[in-house]
Structures are given as structure tokens and as C-alpha cells.
């Protein structure tokens, strides 16, 4: 690639640097200027994490070729607090609790700053419109709206600057106080270094060769041509694993890289460490693989049928795990019931979509300790597994947590750290891997899709007397957290209700779909969605208010759970009371009475979104005759 | 265009910390020079604000201020095991272990100060960077107290472990004690459904959740708001799709996420039913926050238009199709009559 010289003003300082013509403004700022506050979230202009100002205009810098910034004035997140003090907007984000993982926050602060610059009196609804191009996965946006409103009011003098200060904790009582997040200044300023922001001397760049097939046998892998390339320092495959090759949260069924066969599209097959990213990418194209196609298995019901393709030899029935729960006698319960409802429910596969794609650095320290720095949610377990995989003593393997830019369960699996370890050992140099958004979406674990068959029996007074629940969860190609997910899904399936007769069966199965893994609420979201829908269907049938039917059945202190555990305290009634009171709920059976309700559109509601309606026209709209 | 409104409610419950197996977390604590504190534990901040929560707990237990606490976080070669960031366990497991470790460090300091002042250990108290003996005029800063303790040859350190005693499930009937702490919640959703386009807008969520004891109420709200919005994503728009195992939703242009324009106003009601087992009474909120949202929204859609969505997500095309089927069957009933 030819080089070019870029001259521009960045955060008030003139710069003159060599850039590569294919670089985006985002790459140039992060790599050549080492200003890593601006984040790369999607590389496609869809998430807004890379927002910055160019000649005063808010842009998504992943869409700007660096040549376009020639001679321009660029302002990044680092430019906002140039005096060493946070800007009013940054302080407002700190005060409002608007940053959680922090990865979207620099871009969000830039978009918020733009909103105020464009319209210093920006209204609450217009704020939402102006932040519409920036995705946050943690906060639910509410605290971000609060922050922008707070900054606006302080800048306009409607609130004193002290509104941004820490609230005093009464009598030094800090438990229960709204202490401002201690890590927020580092996040709102862009100073915090996530794994992808970190560099080490002599560091190599890693790329991963991934399977184009869902189910295929690897007849042979030839890496010789890739290894011979100038700039390539190491290539690894499963043949480089010295120890017992397998990881997973419950069953260690996944090799660091495909061993013998691939089980899903996107599975890692080989990894390359090279002097630069482009060389590593080119080397992937030089790896030759001979394939033998196998029949794919994509439907979880089909997985349970005899004769279905087998994903793992150790599980010829494709079953990861079955969890049974039995209490009382459901058939007797249904016989006592006045009303029996049956329904089927389905939930889909869902992506965690944390704004920080997977990234990590691996190196061998001077004492021979293999060290992995990554945004992992479970480094304790990763260390155990990697020590076995590398056949090393456990104190010679070290995991360091880097700031986690969102996890939600998706960063519990050790899906790339093993490759970093192998490459660091083989190359004797630090290695770094950063996933693209597409790589993150296509190859990492998802929320388990589920199919639930539900049968609930109730008496006319609203008591549930029997619940029979059968759920099949698609675990995809590897076990990951499936066993735990279907266990939690089973234990909580029948809801926080005292049901005397319960029969629950949850199944986790293997398929050749993208693996399913841990995801916030871990299998129970699927089953409780079904239970809470069933309760409303029953309430309509029985003419009961939906709060009432839940109160009638609510577990109370001293009751046994579905797994026959005695509960010492149960707060469900307090929660039902709290939600009912706060919402000003109008009592009545759920009989499609939306049109006649009188509790709608209260102060706890936002305005519905009507496209474009939030921008106030500054110039009166011309009359139609004038336009014509 | 017909815009219809409706409301729905749903409850939910959740177990705190690792399921059906013993859970544990440990911490080292030190009252440090200058009256500051050092707390080292294998905690993993994933955005929920656990570092601030732990600093608040340590500050209150030691008698210093949160910003004077340095948390040494997760590094398998530098911090004691506190295990993973998940299962809604960090405030419960690690929070309680931090409290216990800080109490031990504080006790070590108190013993030195009681001896130094010639008073009973039980008369000592500390708060906001000061330590004193109740019923006397002995009082000094934490900075001075740490200095006195060290000159007497004692570094005020402590360590602790917190255990949650869970049992596995029976293989036949599933009986067991999977958790020692449970939380509950309930949410009301209000929606507007456009019957022409099938679009659903969630306008309001009222979310009441038991957290045991809220260490940082604003942080709890943040977890509820974030959980609600993730659930709305799954309920209405998100769908990772594959064809023959290959994804057809490879980027955010195809995989649709909630933006600032999609989110409801969320009113949080924090319920505090203290955990009777742990020293702090805290429980957790990360995962349970999103459990009632989807069924509450689906129940609200039913309330608005009489259509029950049993297959997620409730996309506009599914709503329109369900309405069409409903109208057809209504017409069939009419013509049959």
C-alpha cells in the first residue's frame, strides 16, 4: 500500500504524519496518533462508538478515509478535557451515572456535545433524536438522557455548577448512597485502555482462519506456504496444542482450534501472528485445507430423533443434558383442575452485542509465565483450563482482566485466549487479536433459542394446581454453558408461585448452529416468559385481575420451591404491590381492555416516537402555494 | 392508521450466585498509609459498577471515604480468588467478602488504638476518615491512627472468604438447594401498537425489584433500565438468524438493536428485603432486572389488540399477520352466524 502524508489539526495541535491510504480516520487517530479514546465498535457506521468532530461536524470516523481529513480540524474525545478538567458534559455523565461498561461512552459524549452545540436549548425529545445514531448496550439510555439534560441546564445557568458535584453522604454512611462511579472519569474522558487499545513493544498481530462449513471433516491442513511468508512469525493449529485440548464452562468439549472436524460456521481452524494485520490476513489465504463435507444438523427437534447426524462422538444422541424436576403428581393435579391451558412458546437466538468486540493480548513474561490480558468474565476458570491445555503448572499461567466493554455472559467462554497463548509461546513475542464486529457476531455464543410446551391446570378460584413444562434448548455446536442454562431454566420455570404438582423437563441439544452460551438471565428468561404469558391467559379465562392471580399463587415464606427448598423470606408480594402502585394500575381482568383503560399515558410514559417530529422547525414552514 | 394502547404485568424470580454448587469469594484488605485503604479481590467490573459498590462497602466498614479506597481487581497472579462475573453474584459474594475482610483489618487497627488510648476495643468507632472512642475525648484521623498502629509494629490487614452453601439437584426429581438467596420482581409495561404497520412502542415500564439492600441506588436503577431495554430488544426486534448454520444477520444493519428512540421511560421501585444469611443483607439485580419485561410487554400487546404473541420477537410483520388472522377468524365467525 502506498503511504501518504496527512497534515491536520487534531485537538488544537498541528500534526503531520505518514498514513496508509487504506486507513480510515479512526485507524489513523488510534494507531498513528495513539489517541485510543475513540472506539471501534462496528466498522460500519452503525454504532457511533467512533464519533468525533471534523471541521465542527459530528462524523462516524470509521466511514471517513484518512485522506478526507487532509487539512481539516479534527476533535476527538481527548480534545474535550484538554485543560485536564472534564468538560461540563463529561462531568454530567459522571454525575448522572451515565457510563456503565464505558465503551460506547466516548462516542456518546461526542454526540451529546454535538447536540448541545447545535442547539444549546435542546429539548428532551430532541436529545433522543440526536443520540439515535449511537448504540449503548448497558444503560438503557435513561441515565444518558439525564446527563445531557443536566449538562444543558448547567450550561444555560438553569442549574448551578455544583449540581455536577458529588452528593454528600449523610453521616458518612456510604452503603445506600448515590456515590458517583469511581471509574466514570476514565470512561467519559476516553482514558481507560481496553484490551484493543493496548500495545506492547514488538507486538505481533493475529488473524484467525475460520470455517466456511457448518459440519465437515478436515482431511488435511497445509500451513507451509503461510509460514514461509515474509512477516509471518507463527502459525498454529490444533497440532500445536501440547496438553489436553478442551474448554467449556461445564463440559470441556471445545478444542482451541478445530480438531479433526468443524461443527459450526466460523469455528477457528488456524491462527497467524504477523508483523502487521495485512500480512496476517494475507497469510490466512495461503493456508490450504482439504475438506470432506458432513450432513449438517440445524433443528433441535431433529437433533433428538434417532438417525440424526451426530455432532459429538461422546454424545451419540446429541444430548448435552436433561434436567428433570418432579414435585407432587401432575396428573392428579390436572384431574383436580377446573381449567387447563396448553400453549407452545418459542424464543429466538440473540446476540449479546456488547459494544467492545473481543480482544486480547498474549505474552510470555520474563519468568516464563504465559500471560493473557483480555476482557474475560471468568479468568479464574480460564486459568485452570488453559494450564491443562498447555500442560503447564497452574502458576505458570496468568490471566489479567482488561476493562470489560460489556459482557452479559458473552465473555465467559475462553474462545480465543488459547490461540493467543499458543502464538505467544511459538513466536516468543507479544501477540494481539481484535475481533471485527462481523467476527464477533458470527462466531461467539448466543442466547439459547427455546421451544416450550406448557400445560397449566387451575381451579376456578385462580390457584395453579399443576404445571407441566417441557423445553428444548438449542445449544449449538459446543456445550459452553448449556448445562447450567437448562438447569436454571428448569429450576425457575414454573415461576415464583406455590404449585403443588410440577413436572418440568429441560433438554439441551447439540446442533451445527452457532453455539449458545451464557446470557444475562441464563435460560430462565425463556421459561418465565412462558409462565407469565400463561398466567395472563388463565386470568382472562377466570375473570381475574393479573395482579390478583399472581398474588393468589405467590410463594410465601415457609413455602417449598419446585425443587422442595423451604424459603425463609419471599418478597414477591412487595414487588407486586410496588409495581401496581407506581404504575397506578387500574384493576380488571386482561380481556383486551386497552381501549377503555383510564390508567394510560401517565407521567411514567414517554411520548410515542413519530419520525422527525422532535426537531423544532426554526423557520416557519412555507405554505404549500409558495412551494409550488 | 390506528394506534392502540395497552398495559400488561408480569412477575419473576431469580437465584443469586452460582447454581446448585458451592460458591465462594475472598478478599484481602489493608488500612493503608494516609488513612486510605487497599482492597484486593478477584472481582471483574463488567460495567455494572461493582468497583464502586465494593469501594462503598469498604469505606463504610473501615470508616474512610469511597474515593480513598483502591480496589486491586482481577489478576490470577495478584488477587485472591473471587471467581466469575456472572450469575448476579458479585455484590452478594464479593461484596460480603469485602465487608468481612474490612472488618478484620478494622479490628486489627482498633486493637492497637484501644491499647494506645487505654480504652475498650468495643468503644471504638470510625467514619469518614476519623476514628474515636465513644464516651471519651479520644479522637484522631485515620491517617494518624494507621501511623500509630504501624509505629507499634502492626500493619492493619485482614482477609476473608464468603461461602454460599448450595447443593446439587437430585438426578431423579430435581430436589435440592440451588441457592441460598432468592430475589423477586414485578413489572408493568405500557405499549402503543400501530395496527397498520405492526410496530410496537414500549412507552413506560414500572419495575419493582428486591435487591436485598441497595448499596448504590442509582447503580441499581442503571441495572434495571439496562436490563429492561435488553429485554425489549429481544421482545420486539433482535433476532440472530442462520440459514444452514450461516448467519444472515452479520452486522448491526441486519441485527437490530434498541436505540435512544426505542426505549421506554423506566420507573424503578427498589424493594429491600435483606438477605438473612450474608453480613450485609445485600442480594443482586443484574440478571433478574430483565426477566419480567418480555411477558409484561406481550401481555400489554394482548391488552391493546387482542393478539397473543408466543414466538419472539414480536416484530411488526408478526403483529400484522396475527391481526390479519384474528380479523379473518372474526369474519368467519360472523359469516357462519
Automatic annotation (TrEMBL), chain A:
**Record keywords:** Iron, Metal-binding, Oxidoreductase
* GO terms of molecular function: 2 iron, 2 sulfur cluster binding; iron ion binding; oxidoreductase activity
The answer to whether keyword Lyase applies is no
Q: Name one Pfam family in it.
A: Fer2
- Where would I find the 2Fe-2S ferredoxin-type domain in this sequence? 4-80
Keyword Electron transport in annotation: no
**UniProt similarity note:** Belongs to the xanthine dehydrogenase family.
Entry-linked PANTHER family: XANTHINE DEHYDROGENASE, XANTHINE DEHYDROGENASE SUBUNIT D-RELATED
Protein name per its UniProtKB record: Aldehyde oxidoreductase
**UniProt organism field:** Hansschlegelia zhihuaiae
